[in-house]
Design goal:
- Strand 1 (about 50-60) and strand 2 (about 65-70) form a beta hairpin.
- This protein has six helices and five strands; from the N terminus they run ααββααβαββα.
- It starts with a helix and ends in a 9-residue tail after the last helix.
- It is α+β, with helices and mostly antiparallel strands.
- The protein has one domain: Beta-Lactamase, CATH 3.30.450.
- The chain has a five-stranded antiparallel beta sheet, sandwiched between helices.
- It is globular and about 40 Å long.
């Protein structure tokens, strides 16, 4: 992608990110707000990810737990998820990818000083992700976010720091 087009794309993503907290407030009472936020971040208007699996690593409890998994292949015709949250929620409950991610529990990679590369590889293999990447970030209470994802085959993916900044919004969602 040409540099001037990438600058425009980044500006578009940043503009969308600034609006996301307002959307999050629309669903503040729902237990599955994290699903809405990750779905939005995976969309073409944001990071253009075909699949994403979000985990929280809690060293104090020696646990890395799957929180939510989004697969674009499994979520068709959801419409505007923010205006019709019940339909989206039903699709996420029925999503095999989401169910698989949510069932994962590992030892804390941080506590055991495991390599994030090896952890991402293990998760990607278990989820059937071929061309994967991963991101990690610090969260409140000494927890750590970890996302393993498969990108769509385009050249318009944002810079890593923009992605991590967006993923940090997941840290403000309740975990159930």
């Amino acid at each position: 992608m040409k540099p001037e087009m990438m600058v425009h794309r980044h500006a578009h993503i940043v503009d969308n990110l600034r609006r996301l907290p307002r959307k999050m407030l629309q669903i503040h009472g729902l237990d599955n707000a994290t699903e809405f936020v990750l779905h939005e971040l995976c969309s073409k208007d944001y990071f253009n990810l075909s699949k994403a699996a979000y985990f929280i690593d809690n060293p104090d409890f020696n646990c890395l737990k799957g929180v939510v998994g989004v697969s674009g292949d499994e979520l068709k015709n959801t419409g505007n998820i923010w205006e019709n949250p019940a339909v989206f929620t039903e699709q996420m409950i029925a999503s095999p990818f989401n169910q698989k991610v949510r069932s994962f529990t590992y030892e804390s990679a941080k506590k055991r000083d495991h390599s994030p590369d090896v952890l991402a590889q293990t998760i990607a293999q278990e989820l059937g992700l071929n061309d994967y990447g991963y991101y990690s970030w610090n969260m409140k209470h000494d927890n750590h976010g970890f996302l393993v994802c498969e990108k769509n085959k385009t050249e318009d993916h944002p810079q890593e720091d923009i992605i991590v900044d967006g993923l940090c919004l997941l840290s403000f969602c309740p975990v159930h």
